[in-house]
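On clarity, I found the account of how folds are encoded harder to follow than it need be. Since the whole study asks how a given chain folds, the encoding of that fold should be made plain. For the editor and my fellow referees, an illustration may be useful. An entry of this sort, consisting of the sequence and the corresponding backbone structure tokens, reads as follows:

:::
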Amino acid sequence: MYKHILASITALTIMSFADEAQGARVNPLLVPSDAPFQAVPFNKLESPDYEEAVVEGIRIHNDELDAIASCADAPTFENTIAAFDRSGVALNRSVLALSNLEAALGDTVLMNIMAKVTPLISEHETGVLLNEKLWNRIKAVYDNKDSRNDLNPEQTRLVSEIYRSFAESGANLKGDDRDKYRRLSSELSDLNVKFSQNITNDMANPDRRLWVKEGDTAGLPESIKIAAREAAREALEAEGKSDDESLYLFTMYMPSYSPFMKYADNRELREKLYKLYNTRNVGGEFDNTQILKDIANIRLEIANLMGKPTFADYHLQGTMAATPEAVMELLEQLRESYTEPMKSELAEIEEFATKTEGDDFKLMAWDYSYWANKLKNERYAFNDEDMKPYFELENTINGVLGLATKLYGYKFKENKNIPVYHPDVKAYEVYEKDGAILGVLYADFFYRAGKSPGAWMTEFRTETKDDSGSRTIPLISIVCNFSKPVGNDPVLLTPYEVETFLHEFGHALHGLSAQATYSTLSGTNVYHDFVELFSQFNENYLTEKEFLDSFAKHYKTGKKMPEELIEKFVRSNQFGAAYACMRQLGFGYLDMAYHTIKEPLRASADIEAFEEKAQDPVRTFDVVEGCLLSPAFGHIFSGGYAAGYYGYKWAEVLDADAFAAFQENGIFDNNTAGKFKKMLQSGGTVDPLELYKEFRGKEPSVDALLRRDGIRK
């Protein structure tokens, strides 16, 4: 919710807090920042500030809401809807700073603070949504919105979206049901945090590391060996042990795990690492198996309280899909299109592997990356490592940022005076083509111990405008887990890492480009199954030579990436496209299985059996006993994708269809880019399907995706 209540604290509130603190240190999160662009003053923050700011932010927000709810004047858009949207800035700023840094830094002090304040935040949020006096005013404005002729389309939509948000969050509940919803929401929030922190902690668990000797590194690229040797040295040093140059360390983090599974010749060690990875959060100190059942059951209980048979029915309101049936229709359509190509892919790989492994070889999950890569090498003479020399990090940063310059005219300028939360982080001023400031972009690229795995985009402040049209610029952040430089060697990225960068940068552009008035509708505050369009759209440029020529030069020779290498990459990606799709569908089917239950999961429920049944229609490999996805499936149990994981494939259909428009007109065509930019700027101010049809001139179809993946010619 707090992404949707960002605006500005009143000067009166700021002054009153400053007066109270006169003569004492003032919390930097609770007064206007003196950093450039009023950015977050990370250089002045101390750990206790975060907790204090959240608690004080809740108090300030309650005062603001009481003023709205107790207003003696009749409810209007201005004194109720707009006032609500513009309340809560202190709390929003504090929560975003704390939650973002907890994930990016993995600091145990911040993790403990987050665990402590999460129930307070959840209780406050629920209290806001169940505030009857406030709700009655919002409902009154909603009921009379059609009689007002002076509301513009954005204001009309804001009324509807705020009304829907309250209604779907229990505002219509009465008596005991309201108290029950409040309790369930608090419990669910607490469980979400525990689930997420268990994932983070088990990823860093010393028991989830694979130590190997020099002789077991056969097949690994030299760059991967160097990184693993350095990881071993650092780990031994941290444990107070002497370095052993014969040891290499591989972890659960993708820059370590993924290359080992792809390149290591030792099948037994691949199996061992696979099982270490896929038994995360199963048993032991960081067990999530009971927590996930509790989460699924509470979500069902909330849905039933709202009169819906399943959580998916409840949660899919306010999405493009709208119903579980529409979600399953998409998943089934893709399953039917990709199943046979997937079977052909796996059969080819297994047949290829038997030439080396023998006729009794059976392809298992820990074999796929390794043998698929081998076959691609033979068939296309392609290896991901062949592209790495062309993706030197600094050049790639310039190239990816330059994509926004080519498409939208944006300019990026690093500003070392903007405070950052870690020395690795860079801050960029982002400008429009006409020189107007667009926003600030924080870039946090490198892996460090304790940092949450994967990559993500987030924000420290959402774009808004005041009544005079003056714009508060957004503060946007992208976080990755690239390997850090070792010695004087440059950082070379894999194509997958560049794709990830492009993806998160697409989200960042969505936040930076925002031109909405109200935070509820600004930037990435759009329907859940629409938000991934803008990130996945960017990925299409990874295979476009015209784009790659702008930055992808060999770090030693300076030569541009050859056309034939790009073509091999495209063909090799198409080879694995069916398997990749089915794997994603497996995640989607599992998500929908948990969120279409109509009876609570028992404490004794067999999660392994539940997973097996849910994923059976799209199964790619034999079930491996003890290996589970659910306990580490942060996307759906702690990451906001509950009954929404399908959104990746939904958006993939959209992004392929959208990029087809650029292919038809030119990948940097100004007119097409201008239409796409309008979608970026619009946020949630327009219904997404209407917005998309305005851009494309028609509804999206799966045809472009099937062509891109080589499934259909």
Q: What stands out?
A: DSSP finds 28 helices and nine strands in the chain. The first strand starts at residue 210 and ends at 213. Strands lie at 210-213, 247-250, 411-414, 426-431, 437-446, 456-461, 464-465, 471-472, 475-482. Residues 1-21 have pLDDT under 50 and may be disordered.
